[in-house]
Each structure stands twice: as structure tokens, then as C-alpha cells.
Give the backbone structure.
Amino acid sequence: MIDKLKQLSKETVVYGISTVVGRFLNFVLVPFYSNIFNPADMGVMANLYAYMAIFNIVFIYGMDSAYLKMGSLKESNGSTRVFTTSYMTILLSTAVFSILLFLSKPWLGISVSADPAVVAKYEHLISFSINILALDALTVLPFIYLRLQNKAMTFSKIRVINILINIGMNFILVLGFKMGVEAVFISNLIASGYSFLALMPYVYENLSTDYDFSLLKRILKFGLPFLPAGMAAMLMQVIDKPIVERLTNLDTLGIYNANYKLGIFMMLFVSMFQFAWQPFFLKHASDDNARQLFARVFTYFTIAGSIIVVFLSLFIEDITAIGFGGVHFLGEAYWGGRNIIPVILLGYLFYGFYVNFNASFYIKEKSIPIPVLLGAGAVVNVGLNFLLIPLMGIMGAALATLGSYVVISGFFFWYGRKLFEIDYEFRKIFSILGLITVVFIIYYSFISGQDVSFFIKLLIALGFVVSIIFTGALSLREIKVMKDMITGFTGRFRSK
């Protein structure tokens, strides 16, 4: 079992290269934007990208999940039939969706703002957004193909270059050409265009005339439930932005979104894990010790995720205050929202729980319950936003995000056990969550907004790690294995 866990860890690191760099885009650009753009401009960006995220689910309509499942089956064996059927279908639908959105541009102004003057100023950004959506939709399946073929380095290389192009064009257009918010979307469009062109050779080598309508029925049967499921999941991630704007104003939304993005540190870890986890559980689902293996993976994930949450929560104000020449990592105009970041980090930890529990549905090829469970979480999210934002402002929106992720992780655990029962180590899990609760009480009672020394924060963080060890969550052998893995990774890094 230890060897399989080491394999998963290594794959997480490999896929994490591109994910780290990808999320680092937000890490770099948040301080850049927060020191260049005013909160209202940041609010417009937040709104547009929120709606783009929702439309992206429509463009994909579960084809990514279906191709991941069908392409991983032994009988497919990398069949061009599976790829051709999937890709040609999504190519046709992307063309249709794009045309419909362009025809609907006069009614899409709501994605920018409720203010007609703001809509008129930024309406041209909608065209950029539609083109980005189309290009990104046509790269989803080729990226999954690379994962299925274990071409992790190729996957990472294309992703990394995409990000470097995006970052570089942002700096060139904003600083060099003095462009405003449109520079963000133009940069994104150019980077998406690069990924599309870079993946075309893999598309061409797998396309054939072997389009299978019977296979399409199976693909759609499994994939289509992911459309409402993905919509519900995405709503939980982005619906708070337009609600915050409607209940407050664009300035408040800009402050909220800038701080929300710093939760990306935890989302980064979850994304790294997810890329490796999906092929891993599909490969090992039939192993004799699969249930014990998956339970141990969940414990490992919880330990690593909780350490990230605690360390970042304790030191986030120090990180955001880092400055040079009067310019800070996070612009001072946005500091009023820093207290929401720990809540967002914790929310993403529970999102990671959902990612773990979701394995049962893929293994048993049961996608129909997914939209129902995620839909319930989305309803909770919207309800909590409307309830808490008027009472607590942007902290209410952050708590709504946390609450919805707690709910869906509970739902997926409950239903997933009916499909593929896994004996999770919940005594250890609840001990760790209890320790996080203690740290959060200390943070919001004595640290948040206060001038607490770095040394005291470090003592609290190290105390948390030591407490985890005393819960028995890790055996001495596992601690040694983790130490050896870290030593090995750092050794290879230094040698290079």
C-alpha cells in the first residue's frame, strides 16, 4: 500500500508542476491588478469571469468526465473511436454555442454590471470572453488524452507556456501599452489560442472516420448528468460574486474578489491532487485492498490540507503586507477583506473532501445522483449568501462558500458509501478538524487585525503539526516514508 501511496504522491507532484504555475498566475496577478486597477475595475473582471466559468460548463456539458471514464476503460485502449466521437461532438456543439452567444450579446450585459453606463463601457469584453470560452472548450479533451496516455510532461509544458504567455502579455499590454481591463481578456485569449494550436497535433493523430453513434449514446448517458452537476458546482464557486455586487457595490466586490483569490493556495493543492487522484482511483478500484488504500489517501489528504490551511491562515496578513517601494503584495485598498481568507481556505479543504468522495460515483459509473447532490449544495450556497451578506458583508459570502462545501462533502460521503463503501479513518479526521477549529478560534480572537509577533504564530503552527502526530494519524513508518520522499524530491531539485 505504501508503494501505491508514494506513486500517487509522485503523480501529484508531476501534474502539480503545471497546476502550481497555473495557479501562480493568480498569485502574481492579484498584487499586480490590486496596485494597478481600482476596486470597481476588479469587480467588473470578477463578474465577467464568474459568468464565463458558468458558460464553460455549458460548453463542456460533461464530455470531459465521460471521455475520462470511457478512455480509461481497458477495452478502449486509447481507441481513436472514443476520441473521434467525443471530440467531433464537442467541436460541433462549441460552434453552435458560440454563435448563439454572439447573437445574444445585447442581453449579456448583465454579466458586466447592473449599471447601464458600466455595461456600455465594458460591453466589448463580452466578445473576448466568448472566443476564450470556445478555444478552452476545444482543448479540454486533448488535455485529458495526454493524462490518459501518461504524457504528464507534455501536459505540463503546454500548460506552463500558456501561463507564461498570459502573464507576459498582461505586463506588456498594461504597463507597455497602458491598456485597461481589456488587456486581461486579450492576454487570456492569446494564451488560449496558443494551447489550441499546441494540442492540434494530438487531435489530428487521433481523429478518424470512425464516428460511433452507439458509443455517443453511452458517452452522453454518463456525461450529460455532469452538465447540471458542473453547473451546480461552479455556481457554488462563483455565484457569490454577482450576489455581492447586487447587495453591495462594485468596489466591495473588487475587495472581496481580490482576497478570495488568495484562497488559491489551498485550491492549488486540491487541483494538484485531483489531477493525479482521478486516474489513480480508476486504475486501482479493482485492487483487493482498494477500500483501505482509498481511506488512507483521504487521511493523507486531510493531514496535508489542514497544515496548508493553518499555516496560511496564521501568516496571511504578513504575506499580503509584503511590500517594496510603497507597493504591497496586496494593495492597501483591499486589506479590509483579509479576514475572509482563512474561511475560504477552509472551504477549499472541504471541497477537497468532495473530490475524494466523488471517486465512488466514477468507479460505479453512477453519474445521475451527482447533479442532485451538487444542486442541493448550490441552493444552500445561494440561500446563505442572501441571508448572510446583508448581516456580515463579505464575511457572510465567505461563510456561505464554506457552508456549501461542508454540505456537499457530507452529501457525497453519505451517498458514495452506498455505491462503494470505504472505511474512512474518521477518528483521526475529526481529531484534525477539531485542532483546526481551535486554531481558528485563536486566530479570530487574538490574531486577526492585531500586531502579533511572527514567533508566536510560528509556535501555534508548529504546535498544530505536533498535535496531529500525537493523534496517531501517521504511523512512524509513514513519517519516515514521507521524510524520505521529501528528501528525494529536494535532492533531485538541488542536483538540477
Q: What stands out?
A: The radius of gyration is 22 Å. The longest strand covers residues 323-324. DSSP finds 21 helices and two strands in the chain. Residues 1-21+238-490 form one domain.
